[in-house]
Amino acid sequence: MRASLLILLWTTWATGAVPDKVDFAKDIQPLLQSRCYGCHGSRQQMSGLRLDAKDAATRGGYSGPLFQAGDSSHSTIIHRVSGDKGFAAMPPIGQRLTPEQIALLRAWIDQGASWPDTGAAITTARKSSHWAFQPIAHPAAPKVVNSAWVRNPVDAFVLARLEHEKIAPAPEAAKHTLLRRVSLDLTGLPPTTAELDAFIADQRPDAYERQVDRLLASRHFGEKWARHWLDLARYADSDGYEKDWVRPWAWRYRQWVIDAINRDRPFDEFTIEQIAGDLLPNATPDQKIATGFHRNTLTNREGGVDNAQFRFENTVDRASTVGSVWLGLTVGCAQCHDHKFDPIPTRDYYSLHGVFASSNEPAELPLL
Fold it and tell me: pTM, whole model, 2 decimals?
């Protein structure tokens, strides 16, 4: 009994826990991507084998089908990655598959080798369903019982869920509470005593809307909401790292963002001027300041810094930040390999990277 238990525990540890149902997208496709796509992907098909598309992988390469669904013991791919039965172990260079990964591949084949039905490459399939590439939807507001409570479509969605859970909406808050909430939301500042007294005394039906308009027109509105954008733009008043030198002109970009929000600048202009404002025809100093977005990267001024490495790291930061801020995608993963979850191949990442790598930084005004 004791010996059998030890053998069972050792076997479990050695092979790793294989799930009862192996999922291709979660368990197998990332494995193929990290170990096989370099030689058998969309750009290169050594031995006529392509593993990033179902039809091509099922067909196999010059030596025939690579796997037999339901029978891993007679599947060539298992012999290839294991290096048994006279086959050279694959991949021939780099990190080999671990026993746990081979066991996972075996289990997937024995369970029927289920693969997504699409014949296109996985990257294409992901792009067609990825949220970032879908058109903006305009769902119809749900019907509710207490329609008198609804003042806008958002209320309808909230009330529909409350009614589903059989929960009554909370009563409207007192006027001083409403003003405190909206003041903190829009400006980050509490209302003054004078503002509270004026609002409480205002009995007009649109008194609350008037307060909202007042707060939106306040300069503090831009200051509060610029903080969120500046976080995305990795803004700081200093370089970072050990020296952390002060950036005396960084405030110019910060102020540009605040002014853009307070002026309700169209988002297309807001985007263009930050990404390439200096390339616009007859670019103004204000448009050049907007490109301070790219200058917010960390700067290492310690002794012994390798300039080529520093420039590469800066370029990586700029490409990754542009991707995450404007595309909503974690493109930085594709710096080392095709993205495992988002439809971003390494080739696309370095195409974007090359735009910034080919840009120089002349010492001209405005200083940032």
Answer: 0.64
